[in-house]
Amino acid sequence: MTRLLYKLLNRNLKNIIVPGMVFLFSVAVFAQEQKRNWNGKKCAVVLTYDDALNIHLDKVIPMLNSYQFKGTFYLIGSSPVVSLRIEEWRTAAKQGHELGNHTLNHPCNGNMPGREFVTSETDLSKYTVARAVKETQITNTLLKAIDGKNERTFAYPCGDFTINDTLYYNFLKNDFVAARGVSSGYLNKKEVDFSNINSFFENGSTAEQMIAQVEEAEKKDSFIVFLFHGVGGEHALNIDLEEHRKLLEYLKKRKKDIWVATMVDVAKYIKDN
């Protein structure tokens, strides 16, 4: 539209617009187009939801569908919410939502403070790299059986990357498009680490706070990945369902400027651009 407007103005008003004005208008048009580096929009937003909760199927996905948005749901392969509701996850995938890999048993480093919930069976510090890799690949097989897809992204349980100082994802890079981490920050495309994509962890956040984060991403010509767990309950890490709806309402109103997409689609876009 801006290019067409420029052509019309340049053709119809060439007798009255001095060269300096044409130059300034060209610069303004170029600057405006330069800011639309995210699939033709000013920034990208990725909505991710961890741990395969019932609330995701019961509340979140219907809400996303009502706004015509697609989310990324990081599923724990051994979760009963996966095994008992496979058809619903399959339907979600058919609707365009991404089923991401959050490992088979959600292992976390039990030596870290506040990790009383970690059991001996799910203590990442007691894993071998081979076990972590195998369980993650098993989960990929499960997810493919559900959605039939070969491309997806990974999310580190508890944001823990290493086993005895070894980054186990190094042995999984060929299995995923990218991996989502837990460190926040606004990056340009060239700075993105596809083995640890930044995300903004939300717990008790208001819509106002989350909208401010989106606007900051837009100012920086960047993107933002939201990391949710509970949305309206079912998890100690939680945001209010209404605050979540308000965020979606804002994103819907800004759809001309904000690209809302899955983690796998945004990661692929960054790689290709």
UniProtKB/TrEMBL annotation:
Q: Which UniProt keywords apply?
A: Hydrolase, Signal
The UniProt record lists the keyword Membrane: no
Q: Which residues form the NodB homology domain?
A: 43-261
- Pfam assignment, any one: Polysacc_deac_1
Q: Which domain of life is it from?
A: Bacteria
Q: Matching InterPro entries, A to Z?
A: Glyco_hydro/deAcase_b/a-brl, NODB_dom, Polysacch_Deacetylase
Which Gene3D superfamilies does the UniProt record give?
Answer: Glycoside hydrolase/deacetylase
Q: Give the E.C. number(s).
A: 3.-.-.-
Check the record and name the PROSITE patterns matching this protein: NODB
* CDD domains given in the database record: CE4_GLA_like_6s (cd10967)
Give this protein's Gene Ontology molecular function annotations: hydrolase activity
Q: Which PANTHER family match?
A: CHITOOLIGOSACCHARIDE DEACETYLASE (PTHR34216:SF11), PTHR34216
Q: What is the official name of this protein in its record?
A: Polysaccharide deacetylase family protein
The organism named in the record is Flavobacterium gyeonganense
